[in-house]
Task: structure prediction
Amino acid sequence: MPTLTLDLLAVPVGVLQIPSVEQVDTVLLSLVVPTYNEVGNVVLLVEKLTGLLDRICPNDYELIIVDDDSPDQTWEIARSLLCEYPNLRVMRRTAERGLSTAVIRGWQASRGRLLGVIDGDLQHPPEVLEKLFGELVSGSDLAVASRHVVGGGISEWSVFRRMTSRGAQILGLMIAPQVVGRVSDPMSGYFMVRRSSVTNQILNPQGYKILLEILGRGEIEHISEVGYVFQERQDGESKVTWRQYVEYLQHLVRLRSDGRLEKFQEQFPIGRFLKFGAVGFSGVFVDLGVFWMLSNGLGLAAVTATILSAEVAVLNNFIWNDRWTFGDRSIQQPGRRSMVRRFLKFNVLCLVGIVLQGTLVGLMSKVADVPAIGAKLLAIALVMLWNFWINLKLSWRVTDTK
Ligand SMILES: Nc1nc2c(ncn2[C@@H]2O[C@H](COP(=O)(O)OP(=O)(O)OP(=O)(O)O)[C@@H](O)[C@H]2O)c(=O)[nH]1
Ligand SMILES: [Mg+2]
Result:
């Protein structure tokens, strides 16, 4: 459902594809600013950027702030500026989060023939916009503000931070050289690109590095670079955590695989499978622990204790899978009734899994003469794959609304 709030830009939904020039009522330039908790910067930023853009493309631009529902109310402050700045637009996202997708959602809602992005914390000097803009007007498809060309640099980074940044770049060159090697500063979050270069592809970025996605999937021939000095933050806090490094790696792998990984993941989501496996593993301990309590502690017969402990383990696995492995899907099937339905399906499928496991062990050890323990291990692995896949398709199925 698109979010339609008075005077805020509606948030585009569905796949991340930017409408073509023909589909939009165009202005020359749309500049997107992703923000999260930037309340101390947003007023000055809008003042500076609009001052500059009013000069370089008067009345032919839009400045779009895409805020991810910041707890410090950045979006509300930005909204209060709307009457003062007629070219300003504000989008408040509540259902999605993340820098790269914020930028793309902003571009999806934009009308510019040229698209740009700049950080909202004044670390990117606004004056450089004029040079980036000039490069696109002279025919480049992409103009990147770079810290590593003439005129570029970093104001006050520690040796550790410089090394981490360069290390990430080297790693990128090793994993996806065809993408990372195209520019001197592939980590830059400050650039402009021609709309027609990025409209033919569904984008699928991960984490912070939107430029990698544009380099990897865009139709980019001519690239220019413009030097800039990365400034220190004056207000607010950095949002970079270890998570961005993991996402960076995942993004590189995805770009390297050139779409093949995404196709495979559509059928078999590896991350989910690992979670499902971890939950299954936890279930083994729950099963053993409860069995021990029931048989040793309460003195129940072994068969009764086995059945009861297995059911407790199934319950444990269901709760974790429902909350964690398939949490995003459970949210889309709200209500107690649908949860009970998912639990019943999961139960039945677990039972089928046990029967399947027994059959496989029997077949392998009797027909193919595989030693019992080997047959059991192989059967566990096969049934786990099957269990995951069938639960994905049945218990936590949602219809894709592409
Ligand atoms: N909409 C949105 N914006 C974000 C998100 N994370 C960061 N931003 C914004 O993206 C810009 C860059 O984020 P920063 O945390 O400053 O990252 P950085 O500049 O690479 O790192 P620092 O030098 O540590 O500040 C800032 O304007 C942030 O407010 C997010 O999840 N959603
Ligand atoms: Mg920053």
